[in-house]
Amino acid sequence: YKVKHEYDYYKKVYDDKNGIFLSPYRYKTRMDSFRGILLRIPKDKKVYQLYKEIIEKFGRTIVLPCGERSKNLKTIKKIYSQLLEYYADRKTIIVGVGGGVICDIAGFIAGTFKRGTRLILIPTTLLAQIDASIGGKNGVNLGNFKNMIGTFYHPEKIIIDPKFLKTLDKRNFNNGTAEIIKSAVIYDSDLFKMIKTKPLSNFTDTELEEVIKKTINIKADIVQKDPNESGLRKILNFGHSFGHAIELTNHKLLHGEAVSIGMILACKLSEKLTGLSNSVTYKLEKILKLNSLPVRLPDCIITDELIDSVNQDKKRTGKSLDIVLLKNVGESVIYQIKLKEIKGLINDIR
Fold this sequence. Notes:
Blueprint: E1 14-15, E2 20-21, E3 36-40, H1 46-50, H2 52-56, E4 61-63, H3 73-85, E5 93-98, H4 100-112, E6 118-123, H5 126-132, E7 140-142, E8 145-149, E9 157-158, H6 170-187, H7 189-194, H8 205-225, H9 240-249, H10 255-273, H11 278-290, H12 303-310, E10 316-317, E11 320-328, E12 331-338, H13 339-349
Helix pairs in contact: 4-5, 5-6, 5-8, 6-8, 6-10, 9-10, 9-12, 10-11
């Protein structure tokens, strides 16, 4: 999970000097000799426009619409059919180029088509670079519920280049900062101090790359210790039980924005259940606001609807929910809460 520009088949995909991705045809001349199939973003996206010539030389591509609307079994079925048309086999490389949704879909396809093909991810958003592409989790939504169907399937290579972040508008950049802030507050007090003084959008390229590396290494360290989320890895879900539920009940919010609100709700629960100092909640809230992220549950969200969504959370076991709470910055704990108690707790902290 180190920041790498090396590609197994073609020695180098990214040209650091020229700042562009190189076509595989620089090293291979025949279409049949390249076994990759590219899952990519639509033509109207800025990142496509910047790398149009190179992407189109890739040959076999499958275009996916952006956003959560494409993360469903209908999309997966269409991709399976296209892979059959391309005569894809188990040595075919599925290359996912795009944000978190494309990384999720590419991983799910690679992990399930013919019981597993090769996988390379090239994440182009901040959220995807520091979270969605790391750790092997993938999945699709079932109805209104997020990531209900999925697998653990690790890519053989993740190619991360911060230059892609220049293609993001401010809101989508800030969307990714929520996961950086989350990683810091649950696991790394030094990183928390590093990001508390100014918005991440104001960091220099060198500073931002250092933050990206630290965030990736936090997740990689946790995943290596608990690859299948049987214990420690659950702490990466801090803010997500509420965050996913908020996403389902308010479709105007991006993932990071919903998780931002979820982290503050989790902190307020922590004050009641683990003795977390309210000064930590204040510090976290200040950093989130610094990065233009919301921290309050919208009035339009009805508590009962939120609870219904929480009840479908993947971390629910029977009538209890494993929720990640804080004891201090860099010190998190998995706390089991009875589902029947959650409504009262949410009403108390709204």
